[in-house]
Amino acid sequence: MTTGQKTVFGFLGIIATLLAVILGLCLGWPLWVWGLAAALVSGALLTGMAFTGRAQRAEPFPEGTLIDLPVRPVERREIQLTRVRLPSAERDYGFLLTATVRWCPRPDGPDRPMDGGALARASVVQRAEEVTRTSEPGRCSLVQHELSAALAVMLPDPYDLVDAHAVEVTLALDDRDQERLDRLAVIRKEQTVWEHERRHEQDRREYLHSDVLRDTGSAVVWWLTRNDEQIGRTVDDLGILAQLTSAANNEEIPELLRELITTPPAPEPVWGLADTAPSAPRTVADLAGDLFRATGINPDQKGKYLLLIDTLASAVAENDPESAEEIRRRYGSIRRAEESAASPDVTAPTPAPNGDGPAPSMNGSAPHPE
Question: Are strands 358-359 and 350-351 parallel, antiparallel or unpaired?
């Protein structure tokens, strides 16, 4: 409480006491009323002095008692970071950082020349590197948000000379690296699908080999479950099931089931086909046989087509005598027929069923050359 306030309370106490004395004399108060009046005046003065002291302690400097001094503005500066390469969890892939670095000198820093922008830039890059070093390049968009939060706080640099933080943070990957990551992602997805398909196929093969085709009985039971109420069809397919079971287990067909297997008939030989290897070159005689088959001519019918064969051989003989002789030898001729008729002891040569040449005679003699 100030001296002026104490003086005011003193005057108020004197005035209140005088008023109480005047009232007591005029009204003729008894003694106990005089004591009560004195107590009330003293209590009022003490209460006023207590409230005044408490208010003064709560606000020691009331408004208007202090002079407002001008505050020195904080110096803030900006510098750009453009596509700064930062490491990632993958050795061959890196992030590209673009941001605006804001910085200001520390108030308690030394008063000497320095490149505050370089210090701020190095501080922000170091803080960003701590975040990206353990981040996967495929999570670029998510890492960008984490990095923005990490660089948003104004912190001092390692030398404690400037405070710096970053805004407008953008994190990206090189275009070629992004393409490679996209291709790798597609390959991993396809590989996962292929692995599932392969395991599914292996499970099916294991099921068929170890359960269904373990023996013929298992195959029959499996076939019955697939063909309900078709017992007759299952009986008809016993031979096929036995063959499948034996082939799956690399075993021979059981003796009891062999009679159920029907063997397809052997194909009948076709006349006129050359008994040569598939890779052997085709001759003029082979082509003549193709012509006969295409037109329905059967040289085995004696005497019916000998004139036609001789005519064809004569036409070929002008340019290829050997082929003409081969045609006559393989398919017959009028001259050979006359010689066979004149020599009854020698069996006339007949074309072989496959058209390769005359069949051997019964007495073992070879056909007489023309």
Answer: antiparallel
Q: Which CATH number is 83's domain given?
A: 3.30.479
* Residue 169 sits in the same domain as residue 83: yes
Lowest mean pLDDT among 26-35, 85-94, 217-226, 299-308: 299-308
Domain that holds residue 45: 3-58
Residue 217 lies in a domain: yes
- pTM to 2 decimal places: 0.44
Token pair of 119, please?
A: 């210090």
Number of domain units in the chain: 4
Looking at the structure, tell me whether residues 351 and 290 fall in a common domain: yes
* Pairwise CA distance, residues 194 & 200, whole Å: 10
Instruction: Look up tokens 């598939």; give the residue.
Output: 278
Q: Among 101-105, 112-116, 340-344, name the most confident range.
A: 101-105
Give yes or no for a contact between 326 and 285, defined as CB atoms under 8 angstroms apart.
Answer: yes
121 CB-contact burial (10 Å; exposed 0-12 / middle 13-18 / buried 19+): buried
Q: Do the Cβ atoms of 212 and 224 come closer than 8 Å? A: no
101 & 165 share domain: yes
- The stretch 72-98 carries a mean pLDDT of 88
Tell me the DSSP string of 57-102. HH-SS-TTSSPPPPPPPP--EEEEEEEEEEE-SSTT-EEEEEEEEE
How far is residue 21's CA from residue 217's CA, in Å, rounded to a whole number? 134
How far apart CA 304 and CA 79 sit, in angstroms, is: 110
CA 292 to chain CA centroid, nearest Å: 63
Give the pair of three-digit tokens for residue 354. 């496959």
